[in-house]
Amino acid sequence: MAETTTAATAAAPTLEVRNLQTHFFTRAGVVRAVDDVSFTIGRGKVLGLVGESGSGKTVTGFSIMKLVDPPGRIVGGSILFQGKDLATRSEEEMRNLRGNRIAMIFQDPMMTLNPVLRIDTQMIETVQAHEKVSEADARARARDALGMVGIPSPDERLKSYPHQFSGGMRQRVAIAIALLHRPDLIVADEPTTALDVTIQGQILAEVQKLCATTGTAMLWITHDLSVVAGLADDIAVMYAGRVVEFGDVGEVLDKPLHPYTHGLIGSVPSRNKRGEPLRQIPGMTPSLLNLPEGCSFRARCPRAAADCIVMPELHPWLPQRLARCHHPHLEEVAAA
Amino acid sequence: MSAVIGQGAPAKDPVKDAKVETPFRRFVSEFAESKLAVGGLIVITAIILVAILAPFISPQDPYDLAVLDIMDGRLEPGSQSGDGSTTYWLGTDDQGRDMLSGIMYGLRISLTVGAGSAFIACMVGASLGLAAAYAGGKTDSLIMRIVDLQLSFPSILVALMILAFLGKSVTNVVIAIVVVEWAYYARTVRGTALVERRREYIEAAECLALPKYRILFRHLLPNCLPPLIVIGTMQVARAIALEATLSFLGLGVPITEPSLGLLIANGYEYMLSGKYWISFYPGIALLVTIVAINLVGDQLRDVLNPRLQK
Amino acid sequence: MSVYLLRRLIQAAGVVLAMSIIVFIGVFAIGDPVEILISPDADQIERERAVAALGLDLPLWQQYLVFLGKAVQGDLGRSFVFNEPALQLILQRMPATLELALAATVGAIIIGLPLGLYAGLKPNSLGSKAIMAGSILGFSLPTFWVGLMLIMIFAVQLGWLPSTGRGETRELLGLRWSFLTADGLSHLVMPALNLALFKISLVIRLTRAGVRETMLMDYVKFARAKGLSPFRVTFVHVFKNILIPVITVTGLEFGSTIAFSVVTESIFAWPGMGKLIIDSINVLDRPVIVAYLMIIVLMFITINLVVDLMYSVLDPRVRLDSK
């Protein structure tokens, strides 16, 4: 399966999202959960999608899977997976991709596995949904996948129910399910947030290793900058449904262009800044139901000026560095 | 009325609106959000009026055997009486009794027995529930054990048991319904009272050394009213249905003063010969009554349930 | 598991004992058995002799112990009307009632589950709204009146189905059943539907609520993200989860179905124990009343026990907890 896709992959990046818009048509009004999101993930690369809760990260993930439920709907933009637009694919075509070429890992491992079905049932059905293999073969695949994510005695564990696993183990199972078909892309929605720090570290290391060896691209959705710093190649920062900054993870975290990214990094406690008061971004995230005109960060931005009343575009201020701002922190980059 | 309208439309003058907003008005406007419930309320009011005014508005006194003419028995709806003086809009039963009048008087009995026994059950249940919540300890667990045991048996079985013990009579039907229903009230009141009694105002009343009964009935009970009203409404419907069922089985009210259930039972034997109206129309009256009460009860629950309040 | 079972059995025995006291006091102490048991023509000496023979001169608690002792041996007195052991009378009629109640329960699941599933999957469609309105009616309609209307339509007007009795029966496992013959089945349809009506509404509501709740669960979305077919998502992932509460409630309702068959049996002249108890209350045949009540109580407690055990089989989480 991996061989057949290589030709296409060579030309196009695994995933290219352009001006994605996903809105929720609620009784109270239109919630613009995702409103202009663009980013690219190359083959075998990890993109960290960062933002506060409610910034539209998760909806972006579900939009790529095309699993946005009503009243939500993708209303604009394109999702190019290996050069082909997912937005125009039929549900049946999407179903063939899901779990097969594009897999997803959810946030809360306690909720992602069906409590009344055994692990083997839930794994074998995934194998058989996309390939005509015997149950014995599917079981062998499931066992190998469990072994790959570091679950001891996988044969026994296959016969267990989810409630017999700890949270970390359940997330490993979910990751194993995502890996069953060696997908080209994994959408991981805060997969380690609900876990203990030590387990988080183990899982991160394993995921990184897997991506490197299988060439799987990964969209890693998180609000934790430190996770992104250790794991991702690129970073996309989201604010109020839009990507406000995109670039190499090291460069962005080191010299952020957008004032929001700047503020975000400044508000992370660190050893170097001990004793200093923690900086915080003043004000609150705007309601997605009623976004202000122009730059949505305007009201909280220390650098806001009159021209911010016009919505800035995601502009390449530096090579491979994009920011959605009229007044980016260019002087700091220049000073370095 | 203006407040009711102001609620629905976007409030243009919040200050003015806030002035006229009383809890009762808010309750009325929230209740009126469901047109079905308002319709139900209108129907209930009409039914109650018919039941009260039956002696004045019914074409015939169905209990006065002198006016009944056996020759007019089992006439189809819309038939004329033998002497041409009256039209039987809903037909007649086997005794020549006008069904419309029978239903009006039947409603009186059904509503009285239903609402009356639901009311007594409410008194008994609420008192015991309050006592359980206030006394706590052994009293509480004893009362709640009985409640649990009783609720685990279906209402019809409990009612049958009571009637089997006491014999059949109207009083015993009322007793049976009270025994069936008190447990619902007791459980609800106890639950609410347990929450309420930890509130400061009860502590304050206790510090003032007010007599216990006063704390119970003047302070605790009024605060348990909303849930009590909700289940009370539902239980009236259940009581009417249960009375009808028991009467249908021949265990309820006497044949001389038939309730709706007994009217339906009377028509049962004529059903097979195609004389449907003797059972059909009382059944419709019963159905409309129960559905209307349930619609109102449903909406009351939505409005009065604090967990659902916006 | 066995400790759990033992505790449940002791609890159940306690309830049976409590109910036997209530029934005993209710039937034998509140009513005056002498009035019923002894012919009104009897003179004073005859009366006293009869009272002594029946043990009615003993203190109440001794009378109860005698009653209990006999009850344990299966002796619940003789019917005044049939002059047969009361227990035997009840047991003879039990299969008919059980068949009716079983048919109603199975019918409720067969009809209610698909309707509830549809209403849950497409909550805003016109069909779903009609189904939900129907279920409100199902809760409000008095069973006995619906029964009469069924007779009116299907037996009188259309003449499709017979209105009374069990029809032809065939023997299976030593008991006679209606559903094994075409004639018996046609007799069973209407009463079963009538009795099922309330439960159909219940199953619809439970299923719909369950579907709507389960569809929002992460594991359903995850199942979709795995690329499973909508059929498999609905009928394996969603269905298995809602089956647990639905089975539990319909199981628990089985007892009340048996109790409510009293009404249905009276309408359709179904020769079960419900019809017997109504007749017995009407003629004050107390031994039969006592036997019926005790049997029903026993059945109830057994059903609750069985449902509890079934629940633990269906839900793997409960199984672990009770081990």
Automatic annotation (TrEMBL), chain A:
It comes from the Bacteria. It is found in: Cell inner membrane. It comes from Falsiroseomonas tokyonensis. Pfam families: ABC_tran, oligo_HPY. This is ABC transporter ATP-binding protein. Residues 15-265 form the ABC transporter domain. Belongs to the ABC transporter superfamily. CDD domains: ABC_NikE_OppD_transporters. It is a peripheral membrane protein. One of its GO terms (molecular function) is ATP binding. Keywords: ATP-binding, Cell membrane, Membrane, Nucleotide-binding, Transport. InterPro entries: AAA+_ATPase, ABC_Ni/Peptide_Import, ABC_transporter-like_ATP-bd, ABC_transporter-like_CS, Oligopep_ABC_C.
TrEMBL record, chain B:
It is found in: Cell membrane. It is a multi-pass membrane protein. PROSITE patterns: ABC_TM1 (PS50928). The chain crosses the membrane at residues 36-57, 109-134, 276-297. InterPro entries: BP-dependent_transpt_permease, MetI-like, OppC_N. It comes from the Bacteria. Residues 107-297 form the ABC transmembrane type-1 domain. Keywords: Membrane, Transmembrane, Transmembrane helix, Transport. PANTHER family: ABC TRANSPORTER PERMEASE PROTEIN, OLIGOPEPTIDE TRANSPORT SYSTEM PERMEASE PROTEIN APPC. Belongs to the binding-protein-dependent transport system permease family. This is ABC transporter permease.
From TrEMBL, chain C:
Residues 94-307 form the ABC transmembrane type-1 domain. It is a multi-pass membrane protein. The chain crosses the membrane at residues 12-31, 100-121, 133-157, 177-198, 242-269, 289-314. It holds the Pfam family BPD_transp_1. Keywords: Cell membrane, Membrane, Transmembrane, Transmembrane helix, Transport. InterPro entries: BPD_transp_1_N (IPR045621), MetI-like (IPR000515). It is found in: Cell membrane. Belongs to the binding-protein-dependent transport system permease family. This is ABC transporter permease. It comes from Falsiroseomonas tokyonensis.
